[in-house]
Write a structure and sequence with these properties.
Layout: H1 19-27, H2 36-43, H3 45-52, E1 62-66, H4 67-71, H5 75-84, E2 89-93, E3 103-105, H6 108-119, E4 124-129, E5 133-142, E6 147-155, H7 163-167, E7 173-176, H8 182-198, E8 203-212, E9 218-224, H9 234-241, H10 246-259
Antiparallel strand pairs: 1-4, 2-3, 2-4, 5-6, 5-8, 6-7, 8-9
Length: 260
């Protein structure tokens, strides 16, 4: 059977982390979205942070631990986190999609529990300071000359946008064209495109930020190289708001993959 192009509609490890993309490269089959490098970098939150750091775009401060360290005992990690950050903090596996293994800790007991949970999902674990602000997303589309959409805001039903809030809680909402100053929107769009280029992105990505309360500063959170395409997914909704219905968006993504 001849295959013209593949749309790799996968989430998480072995899907959007460069593995399937590498298989398609070996087979010589065009595919939608980012290549091996960008897919792997974006899936690994710690690596993505290090690539974004030279751009001068603010990020939440972080600490890194290995699963082997944590499985041997979390006492030293808890002490290091408490010396560096105030509670609450977020604990994340470095490589996991859909907020799997992510937790928020408000004290040492929750931190120790969250570290052990994250260590079950990846060999690297990240602890981040909490950014208090509004959570926003920006869609990027293109290859050599990518463009950014307008922005959307996430209003999670839970304390933060965890797996359950994303997929099982109908009270979570997304808002298009939230009320931000024009200069803030422009800053988010500029940062999204620069981050996309920094990881060697192609086709599409959704770049997530916080707009910090009080300072209105834009803080990079993460980049997702194959965002969801459900009826409540932000990526197609953002382009729909720009006048590009999902059918045209899919056509454009296929065109971009074939041209690449």
């Amino acid at each position: 059977m001849n295959v013209d192009v593949v749309i790799p509609v996968f989430h998480g490890l072995m899907g959007e982390d460069g593995t399937i993309q590498g298989l398609l490269e070996i087979a010589g089959i065009p595919y939608v979205g980012c290549g091996v490098l960008a897919s792997a970098v974006a899936m690994d939150k710690l690596t993505a942070k290090r690539l974004v750091e030279p751009l001068g775009i603010r990020q939440a401060r972080w600490l890194e631990f290995t699963a082997s360290q944590l499985l041997a005992g979390t006492g030293g990690a808890v002490e290091q986190v408490e010396k560096t950050f105030s509670y609450p903090v977020f604990i994340k596996p470095s490589r996991a999609g859909s907020s799997v293994g992510v937790s928020k800790a408000g004290d040492s007991i929750e931190l120790s529990r969250g570290l052990m949970e994250a260590a079950q999902h990846d060999r690297k674990v990240m602890v981040e300071e909490a950014i208090v602000g509004r959570e926003v997303e920006c869609a990027v589309l293109g290859n050599e000359n990518p463009k950014a959409s307008g922005i959307g805001e996430i209003l999670p039903a839970a304390d933060f946008y965890d797996y359950n809030a994303k997929y099982h809680n109908a009270d979570s909402k997304t808002v298009l064209h939230p009320d931000f100053p024009e200069e803030t929107v422009a800053r988010i769009q500029d940062c999204a495109v620069r981050i996309f280029r920094a990881i060697d992105g192609a086709g599409l990505a959704r770049v997530d930020f916080f707009v910090e309360d009080g300072t209105n500063e834009v803080v990079f959170n993460e980049i997702n190289t194959f965002p969801g395409f459900t009826s409540i997914s932000m990526y197609p909704m953002l382009w729909q708001a720009e006048g590009m219905p999902i059918s045209e968006l899919v056509d454009e993504l296929i065109r971009l993959s074939l041209s690449r």
